[in-house]
User: What shape does this take?
Amino acid sequence: MFSLALKNILFYRSRSITTVLLTFIATLFFIVYVAMMDGSHNSMLHNALKVYTGAIEIYKKGYRDIGGNEYLLEDVNSIEEKLKTIKGVSGFTSRYETYGLLSSKKYSSAVMVVGIEPLKEKKFSQLEVALIEGQFLDSNSKNCLYAGVDLLKKLHIVLGDEVSFVGAASDNSFAADIFKVCGIFKTGSFEFDASASFVTRRYFDDLMYAKNFASYLSVSVDNLDDVEVISKNIQSLLVDDVEVVTWKILMCSMVQMMQVDSIFGYISISLFFVVIFFVIMIFGFINVSSRVREFGTLRCIGLSKGNIRLLLMYEIFILSTLAIVLATPLGAYIAYYFSLHPIIIEGMSETYKEYGVVSDALPLSFDGFTIFWNVSVIYLLNFLSVIYPIIYINSFQPIEATKHV
Assistant: This one.
């Protein structure tokens, strides 16, 4: 049956070339499309995590739900020493967050002021990359304030102006000071840019009586796929009243948004495959219906319905395999190349900054398992496309088929 199927493929060249071409295009398009969709999601996630949120954050239980100085992490230095022993942790930084009132001469606004370690933040987040005016903080910045552009608009102040701060220190006493705006940042997220500001921890710890305290520790990892294992390893080294939270919980809305986007992406490409499927099926049906007498003759000389079924399956198998063998390496190479050399779309970061994208690069995702199931779907669709032609041709009796016009 295999050799006969091969002869039929060579004899019906136009049908064979069309089937191979359609399968080749579908396979190549599917591999590249899924790689681009997954790559854009991965890029969006990595960029969002780099802006401010870490892959893992460590809190004292109750801080995320209730907040307040009663739920600050204590003995932060000890926790940091333990984090250094965890495999897969690429970096970490402690932050002291407090909410208070910033006031200019005429205007006031509730604001989140965060004490950060500037050297660690440069490596850990992209707060420095978001700088649009002035300079980023350093360990000697003292009362310098690094503020969001929309926050300054609310206060009607500019770079170099002074603002007064009133808040509660770690012991719940009043804390007040005068900050000078030394840097302005813009991430594109209005809520963040309108409410967040930063000062160096060395200075802020003295003001807030917060030495060796932190609201939380933010942790980055080498591989996001290992985040669950790493979080469990961290939790095992900490006391029971400390919780370890991964980005899947911290960025729940983004995870849901990417899932919805993936669903609509697969719906879109499904429509493409429906068209390809019916084109291949109709083309195969036309080809088979024009060969009714041929199959009738084969039945008359002793071939069974099972043999005819196997013959047509072999034909589609050979054609599909040829197309996929040609398309898969090419699609995999495209995905691999652009995973190393991302596509640069000028201005993309400005459009998508509200989602945390701060880069114009669009990398593709290269994953062997994903490519494998992409190819498997194409194979399955091609075999499904030959079912109806098989049913049609086997509906004829041998003598009836030899007389078919």
Q: What stands out?
A: The chain has 16 helices and 14 strands. The radius of gyration is 31 Å. The first helix runs from residue 2 to 11. The chain has two domains: 2-49+254-402, 54-249.
